[in-house]
Amino acid sequence: MFPITLGQLARVVGGRLIRGNPSSPVRFAIYQQVRHLGTGKVLFLYTSFSKKFNLSELRSKKSAGIITTAQWASSIPHHHPLIIVSNVNEALWSLARWQRQKSKALVIGVTGSQGKTTTKEMLASILMKKFITFRSPSNLNVAAYTPSHLFHLTGRHQVAVLEMGMRSLGNIRRQCILAKPKIGIVTNVGEAHVGNLGNTLDNVARAKQELINGLDPKGILILNADDPGSKKLSLKNFRGKVIRIGIKNRADLQATAIRFQLNGMHFKVNGVPYYIKTWGQHNVYNALASIAVARQIGVPTQSIQQGLLHYSSPYMRLQRVQGKNKRLLINDAYNANPSSMIAGLKVLNYISQKRPSVAVLGDIGELGKYSANGHARVGRYVAQTKPTYLITIGSQAAIIARTAQAHGYPANRIRTFTKQAQALHYIHSTIPSGSIVYFKASRKVGLEWLVKQLRK
């Protein structure tokens, strides 16, 4: 965070300094994890947040100050400086706006129904070859985390890559108001989280549209020319530069000569060769979006190639794990939607070759009224690609199994379970040594437990 004193901070957030030296330096602001409180840090204490921890915890902590409302003032231990505000959330966002105004970093926003985190990580891996780069951690991608991302910016940062997800309409819009992105990537527009958006795919497009509407008017937008859902996005009011990426349809950046390898993907973009150490055509799209941005801001081709080469897949996204009995486990279980599950099954189909292949698929959440159709769509794809075994876990995932069988997948190679422990016993007793086992489900399923039991 940019240097600011306690007195300046009080003015920025529209508060009143009740206790503390106005000249004391403030180095960072936190508002979610009191355990991180310490010297040089201020804590924004929400009334609702205060119920999640015992205020007595503050007695053993040091701080640069506590920012809260008058009703909590008497509860704050006296060794903490104190700023009183009328609304803690508004105060937090005021400080975040001040921080963004001080930063000269180029902000790049990444949204989409799938591939956000991977694209963000690929792009950051490239940009770090030329620029001092900040990227939002993990998949902390909703508006509640945006102030924290901005507080991490220093005067040295030249670029910030922020993943922008949502839980409701308006969430990405709020992120853009604070972060002010100049470049935006929409990876695709699909059914992910449709259940949170009134069960209509049009609302998913509306949510992603918020990034386009929130871009700098003279900014740059990257779109997927092959994605049907992206055609729902409106460019009517966007006056910046639009770059389309693609594999099938004509695009500004086109991937060709795509080849699956044991450890990753080879492909060419406008004749230039690239390699990524992860699998799947869907990851070629993610790489294309990253290449498009890097080219626009002057990253040399060799640095782009090196950045992609050194990219590592995020945790539980096509993560290779050595299993017992010479099995290869592919842990893709961080989250799921029907499109990303099918993309993962394509990977399983390509890399299994002559080895036995096993698809372990759990419930897909947040689909609302599209749940039955979404799971059935996956089932049809299973019947089409015919992995050696299909294992489903959960009541909704059972639809995958029933649909696959109805479309010709052999019933004697299907097992449906309600609990992971049942699947574990079946895998131990039945799945051949040397198999490739692919795991995919929504976050709430916690399918990584099963992977952990099977790893070497």
UniProtKB/TrEMBL annotation:
Pfam families: Mur_ligase_C, Mur_ligase_M. The keyword ATP-binding applies. The keyword Cell cycle applies. Pathway: Cell wall biogenesis; peptidoglycan biosynthesis. It catalyses: D-alanyl-D-alanine + UDP-N-acetyl-alpha-D-muramoyl-L-alanyl-gamma-D-glutamyl-meso-2,6-diaminopimelate + ATP = UDP-N-acetyl-alpha-D-muramoyl-L-alanyl-gamma-D-glutamyl-meso-2,6-diaminopimeloyl-D-alanyl-D-alanine + ADP + phosphate + H(+). This is UDP-N-acetylmuramoyl-tripeptide--D-alanyl-D-alanine ligase. SUPFAM superfamilies: MurD-like peptide ligases, catalytic domain, MurD-like peptide ligases, peptide-binding domain. PANTHER family: UDP-N-ACETYLMURAMOYL-TRIPEPTIDE--D-ALANYL-D-ALANINE LIGASE.
